[in-house]
Predict the structure.
Amino acid sequence: MKIKLVSLNQLFFSAKEVFLRFPLAVIASFVAAVTAMILVEQKSFDLENSDYLIKLFLTSFLALPFFISVEFITETISIDKRLKIIFHIIGLILVFLYYWTFDIKIQAAYFIRTYVLSIALHLFVAYSPYISNYNENGFWQFNKTLFLRFLLSVLYSVVLFSGLSIAILAIDKLFDIKVSEKVYAHLWILISIIFNTFFFLAGIPKNVRELDTDYSYPKGLKIFTQFVLLPLVTVYLIILYLYLIKIILSWELPRGWVSFLVMSFSVFGIFSLLMIYPIKDNEENKWINIYSRWYFRLLFPLILLTAVAVYVRVSNYGITEYRYFLIVLTLWLFVIDVYFLFSKNKKIILIPFSLSIIAILSVFGPLSAFSISERSQIKRLEKLLLENNLLQNGKIVPAKGNISRKAEAEIASIIRYLDNNYGFKNIQKWFDKDLEKLFAEKKSLDKYTNEADIILKEMGLQNIYEWEINDESSVKYFSFFVSNDSSIQINGFDEIVEISAYSYEKESMITKQIILNKDTLKFTLNTLKDNYIFFDAKDKKVTEFGINSFVKEIKEKTDSSSYSETRNIPSNMMYKDIKTESYHFKLFFKSIQGQIRNDSIIVQGIDVVLLIAYPNGDRKD
């Protein structure tokens, strides 16, 4: 038996064919890969300084499926080269507009938009060759080819990466050649983006329309669907209907989490039915049509269950992006359910087509998830402020201690949400101060200052969370630290020691031995006695230092509205000087972590640099 080996010429010819057929898609994959590799090489990941690179990577990531779809459209409608070039130019203009139009500074909204658009554009790939001339069998065969080729490309990419990674590791270990961890990241980028793109596209038939007359069906696909996917759908169905019966009998409102389960059930169910769609009319597969009819019938009550669950959450907390997409998907499921139950001329292309259109509409314009969510939360915030007399004559009036903790936590929650997603441009009218200037002023003192904290401080409120007010014994966590680039002045000191002491027990004592030149000190962090640090020499106490007052002092000086946060503290506030007859100690705290339980501070960990000097230069060496 002869084994046919693939030559370099064949590989080059195959890669050339892919490039000539999908030039813009291949270029997009190279831009995405190069941008990702540059991001990997950055010493520290800073969103503000890397925004153009992240935007370029995400835009290229979106451009890849978009340009593949453009090629499919131009191939199937058989246009001349001039018109094809015009299509490409229009596609490039749209991609550049997306890059320049949206600002990544409001990061959550930008990433959500990119994620939803990615889904829409991948769905676009699924039906783009059949926009002008739809053929049911060809459409299914085309998507079967895409699906199987995708699975194969993922398998090849993972195996190739694993093999090359082990080879690089062997060179590192056997030949003592230091290989940076970034090499593995670069390798994964090259394989997962460039190799995977070429391999996937090389397996797509050159003439997609030939699939219209291909009626083959993989037996393994039927086995996988019949004995894996459909049983999973049935399990989901049983669980959901048992829960439906439970809430009817107990007469309680459904939990919000049920929405996720219904969506998962719907995806599994529709995907399973699509997998076996071509063989549904075969004599031996009559059960498929029966299963399909009952699936869509049984789906209807679950859609109503989801609608009730979403309504409860929206009534209590307003609309957010997540709830917006749940509402949209619930409505879409309802329409699809009615369509497949009552339509006599069912077309499965409607599923990806309708979902992609809805996805695009949900991230652009005044009815997008972002516009509606922001308006909903601002309206809810305005109502809370008016109810608590914090908004009078259209202006913020700072609280004077007469606001409930529950209302304070709800307001803080909305302010954090706006900070993470949209900023405060649309509530500027409530403040006499220019918020941008106020943020700049505060950040000039501490670049890690949280803008939500500043806004809440202007309202006279604390940045508290709802879980903090559920009961008086709730635990609040804090973490104070200095940046890694902080310098330490060691002039005049004889010894320098770094100490890390961590314990997550409620009450504990941590002891560290400090070996000096001709002396030994014992360092103890004692949380049994009000978080004290003790220094002992020769079993005698040298001095002690209480951390509680130090932590409280940091909180007051940094104007922190809540312990429940991680804060970067200016290095000059993290020093403590202690002088005794025998030693001069200077403690530089790199970090202090702990919790507040029933108004008591419990320090759980410290990283400290201890500087030691001997009085009168009495160095013990």
The mean pLDDT is 85. The chain is about 55% helix and 15% strand. Residues 77 and 132 are 7 Å apart (CA to CA).
